[in-house]
């Protein structure tokens, strides 16, 4: 659920869809955001909302993202940890 188009014609990070799929698999609600200074994703898991910036392995933050106070995830496992998916749940789904 969410928007695919990025402000200014930007692209979604290549790792984003795998992260979204994994989060949804464990029961999270995932909303794709766009716009300068916004996180890539807003995730609700176990009643807790987490803004999340997604980057590829070597992806760098843009100038507008340097002030980020929310976490950056580069892998599925990082995203699952950041939003609070417990180790047992990650193992049950084969993410650990």
Q: Compute the number of strand runs.
A: 4
Strand content: 15-25%
Structural class by SSE content: alpha+beta
Order of helices and strands: HEEEEHH
- Would you give the CATH topology? Trna Endonuclease, Chain: A, domain 1
Strand count, sense and barrel status of the largest sheet are: 4 strands, mixed
CATH class type = Alpha Beta
The number of domains is 1
State the strand order across the main sheet. Answer: 1-2-3-4
CATH architecture: 3-Layer(aba) Sandwich
- Helix % is 25-40%
What would the average pLDDT be, to the nearest integer? 83
Radius of gyration: 13 Å
Can you give a write-up of this model?
The chain is α+β, with helices and mostly antiparallel strands and 96 residues long. The protein has a single domain, classed as Trna Endonuclease, Chain: A, domain 1 (3-Layer(aba) Sandwich). It has 3 helices and 4 strands, in the order H-E-E-E-E-H-H. The chain has a 4-stranded mixed beta sheet. Helix 1 (16-25) packs across helix 2.
Brief summary of the model shown:
By secondary structure, the chain is of the alpha+beta class. It is built from three helices and four strands. It has a four-stranded mixed sheet with strand order 1-2-3-4.
């Amino acid at each position: 659920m969410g928007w695919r188009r990025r402000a200014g014609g930007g692209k979604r990070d290549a790792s984003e869809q795998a992260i979204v799929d994994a989060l949804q698999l464990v029961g999270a609600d995932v909303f794709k955001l766009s716009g300068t200074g916004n996180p890539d994703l807003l995730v609700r898991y176990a009643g807790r909302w987490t803004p999340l910036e997604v980057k590829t392995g070597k992806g760098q933050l843009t100038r507008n993202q340097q002030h980020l106070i929310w976490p950056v995830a580069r892998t599925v496992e990082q995203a699952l940890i950041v939003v609070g998916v417990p180790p047992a749940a990650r193992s049950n789904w084969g993410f650990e």
